[in-house]
Structure formats: structure tokens, C-alpha cells
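Hi U.,

Before I forget, here's the chain from the pilot set. I'm dumping it here mostly so it's searchable later in email.
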Amino acid sequence: MVAPAVTAEGEDVVLKVQRPHRESEHEAAALELWDGDGAIRLVDRERDEHALLLERCVPGTPLSAAGADTALDVFVELLPRLWKPAGRPFRPLAVEAAWWAGSLACRWDEAGRQFEQALVEAALEALLTLPSTQGEQVLLHQDLHGDNVLAAQREPWLAIDPKPLAGEREFGIAPIVRSRELGHSRRDVLQRFDRLTGDLGLDRERARGWTIAQTIAWSIGSEYHETHVETARWLLEAR
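Structure:
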């Protein structure tokens, strides 16, 4: 539940009451580490109630409304600011990758009916081989897409709604590459992938592997299943 609110001091804020979930478990800690640098500030929290009091973005227009080219310019500037060195309490990407791999393996028959075998195999290969050879561990926003960055007054654009992990930078572009609100076609997806890996100096094959892996893992049971699968397929075909 998210609703506008006003503090006793008259500050416009947002009250967010969370449903406890593994992906948002350390949202408050991520906001504290960023401390307003490229993301909204955490004003206060109530741990027992899973409630956060957050900086309000005004006017709050999503970055997706600015167009794909502008959005990519913003992401190229924003991501290095969000990639702060990170460890505890954030869940390691390696742990999350093992969880995704286990889920895919346990649901192989179901997955086999939903995806081409090549997509499942590519996802599992990435999840089983990439974690042990990662680079520097930084704070990752694993749901950073065109509607999770909002126009604000303190800064032109601020990230919201972190689902934090600690892992290598190559993983960090995955949600942007599949950000269908910035255009969903083979050309759109590959353009975002090329721009982000090139401008941010990322290892293309590691970034490709992580993006395919998380996109397939997140597609099972998702309302975005079809577009997620298409995104993963386009990336795999372009290898």
C-alpha cells in the first residue's frame, strides 16, 4: 500500500506499507546506503509494521514518459551512482542465482512447456557458472526500469522501489534491457543492451547471461511472461 502523507513538520512524504517478501526485504537498508544519491530518501521506518516513510517525488512523472533515448541517457548517468560497494545485509546475487536455478530445475517440466529448451538451458548455464567469477560486489536494484525512476525537484530523476541485491555490475542492466515501456521489439531490446554495456564498460557476455537468466526466472507465473520470453530469445539469438 502506497499513499501520500504529510509529516507533523509539514513535509510531503509517501507512506509505504509492504507485504513481506524476499525481494524487498532490505529496501530500507538500500535507501539508507544511497542516502538520497540518485534515489529517494528514507525519512523514517517502522520495522514491526513493515512501514516506510519516503521522500515524495514531485511531479512524479515516470522516466518512461520522457522517451527511450532520454531514459537511456538518464540510466547511463544514474547506474554508477547507485552501484555503491555493498555486502551485508543485502542478499548476495550468488545466493539468489542458486535459488532461481533450483526453482527452474524443480519446475523443469513446467518450464519446458513455457519456453524453448535453449532458453532454459541458457538461463541455467548462466546461473550455474557466473556467480563464482563475479567482479566487485555493489548494490544492485534488480527492478530498475522506466517506471521505477520518477521526476523530482531535488534532482531531475530519482530511483524508487529498490529490490536490492549485492553482486557485480553486469547484472545491473537486466531490468532496463527488458523495460518494455521503453519499447518492446528486437531492435529496442538490443539497442538498450548495446548502449548500456558500451557506455558503462560492461562485459557483454556476462551481462547477456545475467539478463537472460533473471528474465527467464522472473517470467514464470508473471503477467509479463510473453514479453520476458521474447526479450530473452532476442538476446540469445544475437549472441
